[in-house]
């Protein structure tokens, strides 16, 4: 529920003071924030097809001609006309242009995908044909029904048919569809520029950390997460634990170029945690201030007066990446014009005790196969641990009431 008017800075827009937002509601709120952000992004741009991989289609893609646009052979062999046997012309070349028509009782060699001559009634596969003195017969003398191994024009799509709707992410298969449909360029949503801000005096980026120090787990990982979710890293900053440095990192020149700012650490309430005070000082609206989930409940989502979003991740690595899957994924989808995603159904392998009021997101691996395939929680899944996530296939979503072995459950893809 809305508690205050959206223009009041530093206040909650969702949830209630002292009460974390539910995990499903947090995902929905993040998608809404991304949809609001879309109004502050440049319009679509047109890019050459080879540069479109990974981008999001900004308009429906329709077939410019029938697919396939000519009747073709589904196999290597011979195009035949009428019932056999068939006479072969001497030394017939296999070409790719318009072949001469066939009369009844004639055949011509053809390759897979080759255009069928007018008059073709079937294709005889090479392994089923026998040629003797320029006469082709079916091996064993069996019949060859009309239409055998012919791909009629328009089998896949007719001219003008919808192939890919607006909002489709152009994975390699989608790019291939656009190519065979005759597209040389495609309109795509403007990329969402993201700024990464890594905080913490105790964080070191190389070597063996001393007692009281920790290695940076975010610098090598978050750019891949942003790219995997469809954003683009515009800038990065690494700062110590000071309010002045945090304010500059969130509102300096580079920060104002970005539309989403992602910070790591500093989301607590100790004297060394400055993300929330800085966001309040900059007039941010707190869209989400805590989520009823483990790990990752201290995550924050806020909006600055100029429309930029701030996603503040917890300092523990697993908690942060769970927050990325929970908040950054729906926000980037919405900003690119994509519909909200939903967790994918699965079965649980093993019991999970209840945790009233909180969802849990646990790195998990697939076990079994077929009807017995299920997701089992991994080991080493504490909020500061990475080993479980390193070998995981997905994030298993455990509802507050827990799970029983074999029960219906759901999962989220890993954020890369």
Automatic annotation (TrEMBL):
SMART domains: MoCF_biosynth. Its cofactor is Mg(2+). Pathway: Cofactor biosynthesis; molybdopterin biosynthesis. Pfam families: MoCF_biosynth, MoeA_C, MoeA_N. Its EC number is 2.10.1.1. One of its GO terms (molecular function) is metal ion binding. It catalyses: adenylyl-molybdopterin + molybdate = Mo-molybdopterin + AMP + H(+). Belongs to the MoeA family. This is Molybdopterin molybdenumtransferase. The lineage of its organism: Bacteria, Bacillati, Actinomycetota, Actinomycetes, Micrococcales.
């Amino acid at each position: 529920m809305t508690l205050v008017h959206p223009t009041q800075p530093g206040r909650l827009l969702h949830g209630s003071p002292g009460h974390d937002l539910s995990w499903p509601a947090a995902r929905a709120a993040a998608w809404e924030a991304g949809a609001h952000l879309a109004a502050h992004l440049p319009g679509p741009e047109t890019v050459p097809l080879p540069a479109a991989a990974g981008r999001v289609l900004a308009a429906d893609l329709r077939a410019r001609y029938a697919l396939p646009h000519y009747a073709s052979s589904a196999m290597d062999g011979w195009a035949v006309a009428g019932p056999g046997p068939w006479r072969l012309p001497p030394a017939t070349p296999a070409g790719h242009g318009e072949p001469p028509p066939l009369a009844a009782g004639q055949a011509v060699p053809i390759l897979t995908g080759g255009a069928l001559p007018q008059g073709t009634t079937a294709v005889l596969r090479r392994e089923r044909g026998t040629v003797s003195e320029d006469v082709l017969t079916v091996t064993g003398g069996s019949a060859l029904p009309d239409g055998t191994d012919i791909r009629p024009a328009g089998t896949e799509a007719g001219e003008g048919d919808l192939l890919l709707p607006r909002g489709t992410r152009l994975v390699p298969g989608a790019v291939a569809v656009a190519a065979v449909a005759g597209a040389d360029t495609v309109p795509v949503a403007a990329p969402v520029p993201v700024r990464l801000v890594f905080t913490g005096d105790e964080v070191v980026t190389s070597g063996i950390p001393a007692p009281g120090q920790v290695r940076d787990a975010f610098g090598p990982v978050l750019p891949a997460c942003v790219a995997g979710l469809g954003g683009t890293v515009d800038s990065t900053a690494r700062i110590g634990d000071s309010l002045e440095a945090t304010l500059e990192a969130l509102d300096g020149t580079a920060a104002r170029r970005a539309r989403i700012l992602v910070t790591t650490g500093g989301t607590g309430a100790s004297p060394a945690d400055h993300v929330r005070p800085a966001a309040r000082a900059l007039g941010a609206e707190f869209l989400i201030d805590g989520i009823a989930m483990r790990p990752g409940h201290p995550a924050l989502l806020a909006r600055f007066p100029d429309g930029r979003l701030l996603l503040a991740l917890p300092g523990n690595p697993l908690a942060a990446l769970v927050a990325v899957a929970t908040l950054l994924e729906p926000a980037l989808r919405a900003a690119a014009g994509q519909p909200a995603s939903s967790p994918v159904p699965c079965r649980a392998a093993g019991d999970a005790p209840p945790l009233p009021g909180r969802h849990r997101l646990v790195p998990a691996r697939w076990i079994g196969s077929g009807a017995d395939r299920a997701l089992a929680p991994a080991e080493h899944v504490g909020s500061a641990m990475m080993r479980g996530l390193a070998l995981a296939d997905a994030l298993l979503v455990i509802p507050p009431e827990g799970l029983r072995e074999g029960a219906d459950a759901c999962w989220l893809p890993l954020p890369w």
